[in-house]
Amino acid sequence: MSDKEIKSLEAIFEARIARDEKIEPKDWMPEKYRKTHIRQISQHAHSEIVGMLPEGNWISRAPSLRRKAALLAKVQDEAGHGLYLYAACETLGVSRDELYDQLHSGKAKYSSIFNYPTVTWADMGAIGWLVDGAAIINQVPLCNTSFGPYARAMVRVCKEESFHQRQGFEIMLKLCNGTPEQKEMAQDALNRWWWPSLMMLGPTDAESIHTEQSMKWKLKRKTNDELRQQFIDQTVPQADLLGITVPDPDLKWNEETGHYDFGEINWDEFWQVVKGHGPCNKKRMKDRVNAWENGAWVRDAAMAYAEKNEKRKLKEAI
Amino acid sequence: MSDKEIKSLEAIFEARIARDEKIEPKDWMPEKYRKTHIRQISQHAHSEIVGMLPEGNWISRAPSLRRKAALLAKVQDEAGHGLYLYAACETLGVSRDELYDQLHSGKAKYSSIFNYPTVTWADMGAIGWLVDGAAIINQVPLCNTSFGPYARAMVRVCKEESFHQRQGFEIMLKLCNGTPEQKEMAQDALNRWWWPSLMMLGPTDAESIHTEQSMKWKLKRKTNDELRQQFIDQTVPQADLLGITVPDPDLKWNEETGHYDFGEINWDEFWQVVKGHGPCNKKRMKDRVNAWENGAWVRDAAMAYAEKNEKRKLKEAI
Amino acid sequence: MKNQHLFNYIISIADNSLILGQRLGELCGHGPTLETDIAGTNIALDLIGQTRNYYQYAAKIQGGGKTEDDIAFLRLEKEYKNVLLVEQPNTHFGYVMGRQFLFDVFHLLFMNQLMQSKDDTLAAIAKKGVKEVSYHKRFSSDWIKRLGDGTPESNAKMQEAINDLWAYTDELFDQTEADKAMASEGIAVDTTKLKESYYKEVSEVLEEAKLTVPERKYFTRGGKKGVHSEYMGYILTELQYMQRTYPNMEW
Amino acid sequence: MKNQHLFNYIISIADNSLILGQRLGELCGHGPTLETDIAGTNIALDLIGQTRNYYQYAAKIQGGGKTEDDIAFLRLEKEYKNVLLVEQPNTHFGYVMGRQFLFDVFHLLFMNQLMQSKDDTLAAIAKKGVKEVSYHKRFSSDWIKRLGDGTPESNAKMQEAINDLWAYTDELFDQTEADKAMASEGIAVDTTKLKESYYKEVSEVLEEAKLTVPERKYFTRGGKKGVHSEYMGYILTELQYMQRTYPNMEW
Question: Is the ipTM of this complex over 0.90?
Answer without folding.
Answer: yes
